[in-house]
Task: structure prediction
Amino acid sequence: MAGNISEKKSNYKEQKKRKIAENALDLILSKGLSHFTMDDVAKETGVSKGTLYLYFDSKDSLIITSFGILVERLKYYLSNLLPQETSKEEKAKAIIKLYSKIIKEFPSDDLLRLFEILINSIHDKKRLKELGNLFHDYYTQLFDLWSEFVPNKTTAIILQAMIDGIGIYKSVGVEFKEEELCSSLEYIIGKLMA
Result:
């Protein structure tokens, strides 16, 4: 009986934590990573700011959990992007278009803020482990996705590293034309698929 109550309490806490992170993600997407506050999240979630800190020890921890939810949403979107009978070439083009759009629309200061969180997490073993698990899951999914279009996992890693690099360049102010980025990525993936 006591175990059942403890399990219900634990489930409630996890659901509450997720709800807070989902509200934070919505605020991040509307206000930007650098411009939302813990007060905004508390107000949006209907809890006190002190309650937020019972679930998340810092704003960075909340951002990491919210990023995990964003990754889940992206995975769901990518898996439902096109019908199964769509050709590899069309799937590749749709994925490239999605990546190009994300790179174009994601604010540079938000990318820099994400890098700052990553760098600062080196000193926090718990947060570093949380980030490591999150990125491991994220990249495993991406490599599986790319493996449909490229000859092996190493090539998938190189392709994803190139796309991540484009995001890094964007974060420091290098601009890309979405059409040129799409056509360049299509060319590269086309060569890999040939």
Notes: The chain is about 80% helix and 0% strand. Residues 1-58 form a domain with the Arc Repressor Mutant, subunit A fold (CATH 1.10.10.60).
